[in-house]
Specification:
Layout (H helix, E strand, L loop, with lengths): L2 H18 L32 E7 L6 E7 L4 E7 L3 E7 L1 E6 L2 E6 L3 E4 L5 E5 L5 E7 L5 E2 L6
Antiparallel strand pairs: 1-2, 2-9, 3-8, 3-10, 4-7, 4-9, 5-6, 5-8
Amino acid sequence: MNTKVAAIGLLAAVFAACIHGQTNSGQTQSSAVIVSGSDAKWTHEAGDPPETESVLLRMDQTNGSMELLVRFPGGHVFKPHWHESNERIIVLEGRLAIGQGDQQVQVDAGGYAFLPAREIQYLTCSSKTRCTMYLGWDGKFVSHNPPVAK
């Protein structure tokens, strides 16, 4: 992995958390929020797929927007879904295949994606090693599965 690219991606995620100036409780604070990748408190929540971890960077209680770091194992597939808010992704480690409709793009470490609200998307950690990503939504995180075609 190119450590410079990963470091730039992590700095971008930390910068995004800092410019919002919010803590996890949604209270505004006057000092920066800094999260070091090596000191981050990664957690595995009940119900999450095996070998996945996340770090909540920021959650705004007023509008539900949130930012986090996530890790998924190589080969992990996200079923087609859509969100009610715009989503931003920065790949920090690994390679992520992002698809909408019949278009699929491979995004390497340091790559960025903006996925508009209400558009069906599908993702796969297409690398053999894990994928680590920054994820952010500009409103409440709500995910939906598309209707199954009959």
